[in-house]
Amino acid sequence: MKSLRKIITRSILLTALIALVLVAINIVFTSNWMMTYSGSQPPKYSIADISDGLINTDGAYTLDASAAALMDQQYVWAMLINRDGQVIWNKNLPGDIPLHYTLTDVASFSRWYLNDYPVSVWEHPDGLLVLGDPKSTIWKYNITSTEDTISHVPGFIAGFLILNVLAALVLALFLGLWLYRKLKPLYNGITALPKKEPLQLPTGGVTGEVARILNETSVILSQQEKQLAHRDQTRTEWIAGVSHDIRTPLSMVMGYASELENNPSLPPAEQNQARIIRQQSQRIKSLISDLNLASKLEYHAQPMELAKVSPAALIRGVAVDFINNGLTAPYSLAVDVIEEANGPILLCDQALIRRALTNLIDNSIRHNPQGCNIRLSVTKSTNGLVIKVSDDGKGYPPELIENSGGLDESLLLGNHGLGLIIVRRIMKIHGGSVVFENLPQRGCAASLIFIS
User: What residue numbers bound the domain in which 24 lies?
Assistant: First the structure.
């Protein structure tokens, strides 16, 4: 649920940010537009310079050079009206502009338009100077406001912007809550799928199609889970049944082979054959035991008897068992432990860990027929304990080392039988892991890593 809240919060913040950016863009765009289009018109304050440049010489009016240049740049026509309302001078005067004006006429056009021509006026010593622009080029409108209203314009603009921001935030919050309500059932459904819980999500609304697919997926996963559970149960029962059926005749074979091996009346060659039969039967019995244990470990059917044990005592016991069972040259077995390992610091199923160590030692012996030196050691790691079984033999195959991270059990089965698979599964149910590596000088090592 925290992930969903995080998504919704980010959506709200992103929507608000977009709204604020849009407001800022509108402000910049409006300001730029006003500056661009208002700036395209030359400032009309130069009308005073034009008026000063209109000179009366013995009743004849002329514009000096600077005033004429200003007028050509900014205006189309001009005229000078004397105090009697008569036009006494003009330049480029349109034909529809009268040559005589009353006081009322002057009052009506002095601020805005004369016959639809935008005009500007300025007092001249000899009358009123009128400068005109072409029709439909300048928009003029009379806006009247009180000083109190004008003084409140900055506050109004600020309030308008704040209102926009608040509206954007409210809109973002509303959209976020709406999205949250729509996505919450989907989120709950997705999180329930790994838990193998049945789903019945509502299939209406904008998320209805996704909800329907999740419901169908839940049904399919539930059916597959039942099928897998049934298959696994059947396989486990089959392995246990076959193992039980094989043990009885196998025990008889081993018994008769042992009697023949110890029968002094048989020739030595036949006694040796009986010994081989007994040894291979014993190997088959061990393989059956390994198969049963591997199956139980895979499906968590092996009961765990956890207890605090001394790692040092554990590996010494394993070493003593091998030595007492006749481990001789060209093999040797050494133990190396730290002082802390003498205390009961390892929580584990002692029988299973002994089995894992036994399998690793057997693996070193079986794959080094010319002999090797085997070492058992216990060391502390940053977050737990490491029990290592190493040897100076020929080492592990490269493909096993390359895939040790996400270990493919088919590699273990093909090269080392069930022994290493059982080691890996024992460490898995203990919450730890096993790492296989080849040593730089010679040989290999398998590290059982326990997380404390």
Answer: 2-40+145-182
- The reply to whether 31 and 168 lie within a common domain is yes
DSSP H helices in 45-90: 47-53, 65-74
Domain assignment present for 137: no
d(CA 422, CA 86): 119
Q: Is there a single domain that holds both residue 402 and residue 336? A: yes
Centre a 10 Å sphere on the Cβ of residue 334 and count the other Cβ atoms it contains. Answer: 11
List beta partners, residue 185: none
Report how far apart, in Å, the C-alpha atoms of 111 and of each of 95, 114, 150, 342, 362 are.
Answer: 21, 9, 21, 107, 111
Whether 168 and 28 map to the same domain: the answer is yes
Give the Cα separation of 129 and 240 in Å (integer).
118
Question: 267, 298, 329: which is the final residue of a domain?
Answer: 298
pTM value > 0.85 = no
My answer on whether 151 and 19 are in the same domain is yes
Residue 40, pLDDT above cutoff 50: no
Q: Which residue did the predictor score with more confidence, 121 or 397?
A: 121
| Residue 237 located in a structural domain | yes
The separation between CA 144 and the C-alpha centre of its own chain, rounded to angstroms, equals 59
- Is residue 331 located within the same domain as residue 429? yes
The verdict on 236 and 270 lying in the same domain is: yes
Q: Are residues 363 and 429 in the same domain?
A: yes
Residues 344 and 429 in one domain: yes
Q: How far apart are CA 201 and CA 376, in angstroms?
A: 56
Q: What is the pLDDT of residues 218-256, one digit of tens each?
A: 888 888 878 877 776 676 666 666 666 777 788 888 888
From its phi and psi, is residue 196 left (phi > 0), alpha (psi between -120 and 50) or beta? left
Q: Among 382, 368, 372, 356, which residue's Cα sits nearest to residue 436?
A: 356
Tell me whether residue 338 is in a domain: yes
What pLDDT score was predicted for residue 371?
Answer: 92
Cα(338)–Cα(445) distance, integer angstroms: 18
C-beta contacts of 38-42 below 8 A and 24+ residues apart: 41/138, 42/73, 42/74
How confident is the model over 48-87, as pLDDT tens digits? 888 999 998 888 899 998 988 888 888 899 999 998 999 9
- Pick the last residue of a domain from 64, 98, 132: 132
Which of residues 310 and 247 earns the better pLDDT score?
310
Vertex 324: Cα angle to 310 and 312 (nearest 5): 15
Residue range 87-103, pLDDT digits in tens? 999 999 999 999 999 98
Residue type, 37: Y
Q: Quick check: 39 pLDDT over 50?
A: no
How many domains is the chain partitioned into structurally?
A: 4
Element (H, E) at 446: strand 444-451
